[in-house]
Automatic annotation (TrEMBL):
PANTHER family for this protein: 4-CARBOXYMUCONOLACTONE DECARBOXYLASE FAMILY PROTEIN (AFU_ORTHOLOGUE AFUA_6G11590), BLL7811 PROTEIN
Domain Carboxymuconolactone decarboxylase-like span(s) in chain numbering: 15-97
GO terms assigned for molecular function: peroxiredoxin activity
Protein name: Alkylhydroperoxidase AhpD family core domain-containing protein
Organism: Micromonospora coxensis
């Protein structure tokens, strides 16, 4: 089902949002988490939420950050592939749990949190949680207003 956007992206309509988003981006990307890990987390959460605009921009950003096609193509099946490090797996598991909050009574179970904490310092964990929340924020804006990936892929 392809439909037209309902409106311009709300973040573009309200001028003060851009500054806030830039601060979130800067904070998440300055905490020491590898950029490729943040891009993978963003892309995986966007895949789960079915946000075509964020999946498109996320894949492009991941490639720009040095991510390989092989890993990008396997991201949805990250558990079943050998392409991801233990730290990336911990970040992806955390991202999936934090994205699927309503799927279980304990939204982010202790073992998922403990594994992430084993690989990331508190500041890095804060950045991961903030980045997943930011991603989910944009996924919800885009899904609600039916923002689409650009048609001129190139």
């Amino acid at each position: 089902m392809t439909t037209e956007p309902r409106m311009q992206n709300p973040a573009a309509v309200l001028p003060d949002i851009a500054g806030a988003v830039n601060l979130l981006y800067k904070a998440a990307h300055s905490a020491g988490v590898p950029g490729t890990t943040l891009e993978l987390v963003h892309l995986r959460a966007s895949q789960i939420n079915g946000c075509s605009a964020c999946v498109d921009s996320g894949a492009r950003a991941a490639r720009k950050a040095g991510e390989t096609e092989e890993r990008l193509l396997a991201l949805a099946a990250w558990r079943e592939t050998p392409y991801f490090t233990e730290a990336e797996r911990a970040a992806l598991a955390l991202a999936e749990a934090a994205t699927r909050l309503a799927d279980r009574a304990d939204a982010v179970p202790d073992p998922i949190w403990a594994e992430a904490a084993r690989h990331f310092e508190e500041k890095e964990l804060a950045a991961l949680v903030l980045w997943v929340a930011t991603t989910n924020f944009f996924n919800r804006l885009n899904a609600t207003t039916r923002q689409q990936a650009p048609q001129n892929w190139g």
